[in-house]
Design the sequence.
């Protein structure tokens, strides 16, 4: 074993000569190295290379991490900006919702049904993730803040959708009431006889007039004052040619003394649709329309169901 060790040491101490020969007039350069020096040099170079690789790797990881951080900042900035925009939209929707609800609380619903709904401009929100970042306080802004704001935004969205559904259901109900409630003049003309007690123009005794008479020339178009279904279209003693339309909301309307009937029984009628022409049939002294409004099977004064409705 000793012999073998001495042999290795002897070999390591053995000299090596390296000659650099220049193809010119410069003399060759001779360098003498021991095997031990060469091995130490190779070992040192290997260690240096490994260390340099380790340092470079850590530097590359740092650069990569820094780059990822910058990318994340940009993404957070974009996401925060989207949250801000969404909040502004929801803020505008809430403002419109308040205006609509305020409008629904007014005495007159004519604006809602006939003229539509008004809309206001957006209101600035008091704080947002974007303003935090732009103020240079990005380090104070965390992912938890984004999640919290996103959750709050989602809750606002659910509330807004629910409120919108309630408002639209209310408006649709009001529109249905409008469509099926008598609320317009059935024809052009002047009221020649009001609702209530009067002296019969033909029979001469006092009786209760169950509608109003609207006078005009023969052939004047007669229109349905609400959506409904025709339940009578024909001749009836005293009324002459008559049309009776049944509407929802417990209403019925009667159109009498017609010269011409343009609809038939069981036909569906729309508000404002022409249904007949004015005439002088039945017990009548001149061309006019006898118009009645029934509510829960009882006659009511048609005057309040003419113009300036839904007040």
Sequence:
């Amino acid at each position: 074993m000793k012999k073998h060790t001495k042999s290795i040491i002897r070999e390591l101490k053995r000299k090596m000569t390296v000659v650099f020969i220049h193809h010119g007039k410069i003399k060759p350069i001779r360098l003498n190295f021991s095997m031990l020096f060469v091995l130490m040099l190779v070992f040192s170079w290997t260690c240096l290379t490994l260390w340099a690789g380790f340092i470079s790797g850590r530097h590359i990881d740092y650069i990569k991490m820094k780059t990822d951080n910058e990318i994340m900042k940009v993404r957070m900035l974009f996401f925060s900006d989207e949250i801000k925009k969404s909040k502004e939209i929801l803020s505008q929707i809430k403002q419109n919702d308040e205006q609509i609800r305020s409008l629904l609380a007014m005495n007159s619903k004519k604006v809602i049904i006939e003229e539509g709904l008004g809309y206001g401009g957006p209101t600035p929100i008091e704080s947002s993730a974007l303003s935090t970042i732009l103020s240079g306080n990005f380090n104070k802004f965390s992912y938890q803040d984004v999640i919290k704001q996103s959750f709050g935004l989602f809750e606002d969205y659910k509330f807004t959708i629910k409120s919108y559904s309630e408002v639209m259901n209310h408006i649709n109900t009001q529109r249905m009431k409008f469509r099926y409630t008598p609320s317009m003049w059935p024809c052009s003309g002047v009221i020649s006889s009001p609702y209530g007690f009067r002296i019969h123009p033909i029979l001469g005794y006092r009786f209760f007039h169950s509608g109003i008479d609207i006078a005009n020339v023969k052939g004047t178009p007669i229109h349905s004052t609400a959506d409904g279904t025709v339940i009578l279209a024909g001749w009836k003693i005293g009324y002459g040619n008559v049309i009776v339309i049944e509407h929802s909301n417990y209403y019925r309307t009667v159109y009498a003394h017609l010269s011409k009937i343009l609809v038939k029984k069981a036909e569906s009628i729309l508000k404002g649709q022409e249904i007949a022409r004015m005439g002088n049939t039945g017990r009548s002294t001149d061309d006019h329309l006898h118009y009645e409004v029934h509510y829960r099977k009882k006659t009511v004064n048609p005057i309040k169901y003419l113009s300036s409705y839904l007040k």
Observations:
- The two ends are 121 Å apart (CA to CA).
- Residues 35-104 form the longest helix (70 residues).
- DSSP finds five helices and 14 strands in the chain.
- Confidence is low (pLDDT under 50) at residues 111-128.
